[in-house]
């Protein structure tokens, strides 16, 4: 069995090992032990904090195999993006052009530097070991962040977004960057990402990036083609998130043009489908006559005691309790009569 | 001899014939009898001062007095853009700088503007190929400055001239291909025709309104911003000699430059002088600075309704000019009348 | 007598004392020993030509040679905005017109721009109150044009001067109250200080970047766009006489005008002449046009490192000037040396 | 009993009478019989049309008292706003301004002329006789348009909006217009509305209105105060629509600054709560033991046969049929075994 839980100090070495294999680009783990340790400490403080309004908290989760206690993945969420500044993105505007005299009617896309995502909760780092990519635990890890938000809504905003890495070539170049950011920053894509530390909330962005909308038809073909396209490494995350209810068309990243998925929580399946159920201990012999079992993510805990697992069971819609085997109860650290939230995976 | 004079109603036929020679590229001189007739009517009313100054369109023809043939045409429009918006791109600069990264980026930008609204425009210059020799082109182009110097109160402070932009093979405009085509989705020539017909609302409807960074355009388009068509280069130089400069305004379709001047800073305003027709006194003649003897001089009468101008070799000396009889006749002047004079060519300050 | 000359390292103390007199409103001349010391060092290196032309800052002092006292200061900065963005509002025009409704609306717009980046700037003019009489102000202001005419190759084509904007009672700026305050949320004086200290990134962060229609501003703010502070009006007139004009650029905080000129069109470039110190020949003197006898003339030496200038009543005649001994001495010149001269006051073309 | 149904030629006189009392401003009935007749004819043609893609159709409904056949209200919906042009509105943008050096952080509102509502379905004219304002039939009339969209989704877009008249003074002046439109149009508010015929899709708008965002802090206080405020006559409509799920903050009218409510159909109660039920004839004696009755809007017909009524009955969630009294069946023109859609009012 696997559990998703808040990161602990003891996980630092394991995270360092994961960081060594993750791809270059935005929103992945940092490469140095020092920075990883800082992340972990910040997360521990965030989970322990009493929060009334989402602010600078950042929560980091790990996927652990209970069999051998290896760490097989990690995912994080920021309580409020750009909390010490402004989160910048390009809004994808559509301008209708109509001339009745000339009988012309078409739309022109324009990218506008905007700060609308500031204050949204931001899903960030997501990485699972390739061996787990097809397992339901990959989906569990991705959704654990939202399950935590269901359990602790006061820690998060009403809207969520996820920037996904855009496409880059073998040399780490980005055609979107070359057409836009490079002209203002006068440096290579990877250099720019390095100096800015992957951030999107810095003063230098407003100093350097274009103030006026960028008309998309004026961009070279390869840059246009890169808009909203994901880096192959992000495909799994993309599929999980769109299935969750995130929408992709409104914003793109200002550096590499990668998609920024966003949604109001009311549009997300984890929020709309979450069922609160009391825990009961599983009968030794499950009822074979019931409907076929369904895979559920089951989670508990609004703080550092957060835990989430995958479990198959009969549909819970019409039930008041969820029957959990003892092992699952142990993994979740719950017992008979406790409350858990359950969402179909 | 050649004399430049105010157009008259009966020049219309000759003007039409000339317009058939112009070819594409000049939108204000098309062989269209209705358009030309309207224009001549306005021009005649302008010289007669029967319409308000800002509606006037002073049109001049160059007449070959030996044959009576019209050799060229040019005009001064008192004020552009007062009935139809007059669009240009203005080239500006934006600096993007970050101390933190030690990055300092200077970017050129294009602003869609109507800044030149109300300016006086030099336009519709055409010299018949048979007459493209000697100083004829200069005479035709520069006559307008002498006219302005004679009647400066009739003009706004800002004077402009639109120059035909650079075109590559087969009339292709690299600037249009790099910018306008994305928004208009039609050929350059078609766009050009529509504007000639005064159908300009499509510009407001389809043109991108937000400032553009020049760096977004393909190199080929950037290279031609403010560049004139090669055949227009000599005309540009003539205007620059008179004090007109490219100040960063270009045509929205082909990025051809607009030359500008303050009327008060024109060479004609600074250096043109009035002189009485007659012989200079001995003393004046003796003291006159020694110039090259055959330095040509633009000479005009001072009569609005019957404005006439020619190129003379008589030099004004301390307020007097010994204008030959024949030239006096062409200017409809007599001894004792006052004329305005300006050296055809520019004399630079040798001390800087 | 008063002589204007290139600043020297040992003028620093006197400059500091003068800066204490300036008061607020001139951000480039604050009584700050570090800032002034840096500035004098750059100025000395500029005259010595040991730093590249675009980094130079030519600073001049006016010295009372009777007392050795410094009576005034002024400067020419070779190029602005090359290390810190140089912001202005540019006033443009947009026409909104609909044939269908027969509406034609001409609107003024403000564009935040760095268009003047790289221009040469006239700045830091201050004349001690004790010396505000006669032609002293003119001498101090206009000396810079003579310097530019002597060394035009050192300057870019565009010359600018920022004029202090209009203020109402107690230093209140109606333009700032109508615009900037909404975005900066702080007092005008505070904003002014921050820019003086070179802290300009807040402009990029807080200033509205989109073009603004002037019509959105309160009437009181609109009224002062391009208006100078009453005490600055005489300084503005002096610059305008030399060929500088308001071309639509204003300060982003108080909307004070920027005056501009093309270097090549300055009066000093057109009309200043070189003359050898010595007596003119009889013939030349006899033929000289009869001017008012006491017409003052700016005279400078032609030496970059030891540039000196004064106001003389000796008139140059056909390339010679009979400069009194005392004035020769003040200019560090001798008979036979060449000096540059320019009439202090403008002579208009009487013919237009 | 009252029924909402498509307008018919015979209703023209009644509409003319209604028009005589409706308020001046946008989106009310035209004042002349000729124009009313044109509207009615266009509506009849629209209901009769076979539609694959929403386009220039415009549907006009009336609220009729079956007792005396009087017309007590009217409401309309356009299939696609700006269909022969572009529907212009002001988008309400928020710009985050942050300067860490100066320790300043605030947001600035800006209004941007946009065409994003083009192609949305537009709820327009809404008027009920004052005697009916508090009756459930007022809500029925408003929602009938959305019920029709539930029954004939191919006739409408996925998103809907409703412009509501903004505030004006006793003389018909609009403080928002005076601060903005007047400067460009050079005429009074009512004159401008007259020359443009209440439309928001005309070329002259792009010719005359400001091209650049309007910074709200630069507007005079009374104009700022008018932004998003409704004319008192629109209060009923506003309350009905926000209860329905429409949101008000994103767009305002370019002329009077009145609010433009908008929503995706998935956010609208009529769509999310609509139940398809088979019709059964009501038992003579309803079951008194059931839960207390609930008011439902019941509608049928995807074309000119559309009808909608209000009826109270037991909750329908767990039932497969809806029991309709004979009189209701007659009003809806349905019979045993037909299908209707039902939404709680």
UniProtKB/TrEMBL annotation, chains A, D:
Transmembrane segments: none annotated. GO terms for biological process: L-arginine catabolic process. Keywords: Acyltransferase, Arginine metabolism, Transferase. GO terms for molecular function: arginine N-succinyltransferase activity. InterPro entries: Acyl_CoA_acyltransferase, Arg_succinylTrfase_AstA/AruG. It comes from the Bacteria. It holds the Pfam family AstA. PANTHER family: ARGININE N-SUCCINYLTRANSFERASE, N-SUCCINYLARGININE DIHYDROLASE. This is Arginine N-succinyltransferase. It comes from Rugamonas brunnea.
TrEMBL record, chains B, C:
It comes from the Bacteria. One of its GO terms (molecular function) is arginine N-succinyltransferase activity. GO terms for biological process: L-arginine catabolic process. Its EC number is 2.3.1.109. SUPFAM superfamilies: Acyl-CoA N-acyltransferases (Nat). The keyword Acyltransferase applies. Keywords: Acyltransferase, Arginine metabolism, Transferase. InterPro entries: Acyl_CoA_acyltransferase, Arg_succinylTrfase_AstA/AruG, Arginine_N-succinylTrfase. Pfam families: AstA (PF04958). This is Arginine N-succinyltransferase. It comes from Rugamonas brunnea. The gene is astA.
């Amino acid at each position: 069995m696997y559990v998703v839980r808040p990161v602990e100090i003891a996980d630092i070495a394991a995270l360092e090992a994961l960081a060594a294999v993750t791809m270059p680009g935005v929103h992945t783990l940092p490469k140095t032990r020092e920075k990883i340790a800082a992340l972990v400490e910040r997360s521990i403080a965030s989970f322990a904090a009493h929060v009334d309004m989402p602010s600078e908290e950042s929560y980091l989760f790990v996927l652990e195999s209970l069999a051998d206690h290896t760490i097989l993945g990690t995912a994080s969420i920021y309580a409020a993006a750009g909390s010490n500044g402004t989160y910048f993105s390009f809004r994808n505007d559509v301008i209708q052009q109509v001339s009745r005299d000339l009988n012309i009617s078409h739309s022109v896309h324009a990218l506008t530097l905007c700060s609308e995502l500031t204050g949204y909760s931001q899903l960030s780092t997501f990485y699972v070991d390739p061996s787990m990519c097809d397992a339901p635990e990959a989906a569990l890890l991705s959704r654990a962040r939202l399950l935590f938000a269901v359990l602790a809504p006061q820690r998060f905003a009403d809207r969520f977004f996820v920037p996904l890495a855009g496409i880059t070539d073998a040399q780490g170049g980005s055609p979107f960057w070359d057409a836009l950011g490079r002209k203002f920053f006068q440096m290579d894509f990877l250099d720019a990402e390095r100096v800015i530390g992957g951030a999107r909330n810095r003063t230098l962005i407003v100093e350097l990036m274009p103030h006026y909308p960028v008309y998309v038809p004026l961009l070279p073909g390869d840059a246009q083609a890169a808009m909203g396209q994901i880096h192959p490494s992000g495909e799994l995350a993309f599929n999980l998130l769109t299935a969750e209810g995130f929408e992709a068309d409104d914003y793109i990243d200002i550096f590499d043009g990668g998609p920024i998925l966003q949604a109001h929580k009311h549009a997300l399946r984890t929020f709309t489908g979450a069922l609160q159920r009391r825990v009961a201990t599983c009968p030794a012999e499950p009822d074979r006559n019931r409907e076929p079992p369904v895979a559920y993510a089951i989670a508990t805990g609004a703080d550092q005691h957060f835990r989430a697992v995958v479990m198959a069971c009969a549909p819970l819609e019409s039930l008041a309790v969820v029957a959990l085997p003892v092992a699952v109860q142990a993994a979740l650290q719950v017992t008979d009569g406790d409350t858990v939230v359950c969402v179909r995976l | 001899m050649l004399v430049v004079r105010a157009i008259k109603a009966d020049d219309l036929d000759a003007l039409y014939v000339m317009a058939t020679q112009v070819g594409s590229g000049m939108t204000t001189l098309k062989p269209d009898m209705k358009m030309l007739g309207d224009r001549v009517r306005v021009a005649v009313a302008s010289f007669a001062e029967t319409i308000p100054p800002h509606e006037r369109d002073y049109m001049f023809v160059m007449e070959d007095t030996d044959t009576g043939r019209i050799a060229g045409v040019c005009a001064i429009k008192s004020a552009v853009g007062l009935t139809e918006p007059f669009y240009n791109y203005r080239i500006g600069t934006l600096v993007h700088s970050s101390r933190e990264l030690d990055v300092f980026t200077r970017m050129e930008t294009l602003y869609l503007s109507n800044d030149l609204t109300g300016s006086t425009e030099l336009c519709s210059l055409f010299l018949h190929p048979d007459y493209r020799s000697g100083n004829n082109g200069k005479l035709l182009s520069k006559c307008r400055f002498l006219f302005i110097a004679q009647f400066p109160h009739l003009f706004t402070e800002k004077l402009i001239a639109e120059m035909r932009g650079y075109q590559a093979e087969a009339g292709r405009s690299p600037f249009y291909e790099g910018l306008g085509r994305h928004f208009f989705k039609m050929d350059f020539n078609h766009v050009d025709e529509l504007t000639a017909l005064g159908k300009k609302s499509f510009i407001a409807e389809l043109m991108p309104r937000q400032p553009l960074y020049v760096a977004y355009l393909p190199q080929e388009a950037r290279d031609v911003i403010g560049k004139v068509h090669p055949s227009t280069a000599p005309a540009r130089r003539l205007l620059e000699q008179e004090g007109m400069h490219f100040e960063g305004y270009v045509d929205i379709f082909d990025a051809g430059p607009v030359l500008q001047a303050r009327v008060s800073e024109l060479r004609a305003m600074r250096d043109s002088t009035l002189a009485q027709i007659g012989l200079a006194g001995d003393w004046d003649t003796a003291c006159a600075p020694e110039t090259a003897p055959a330095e040509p001089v633009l000479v005009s009468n001072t009569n609005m309704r019957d404005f006439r101008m020619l190129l003379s070799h008589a030099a004004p000396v301390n307020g007097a000019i010994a204008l030959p009889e024949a030239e006096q006749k062409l200017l409809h002047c007599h001894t004792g009348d006052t004329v305005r004079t300006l050296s055809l060519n520019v004399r630079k300050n040798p001390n800087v």
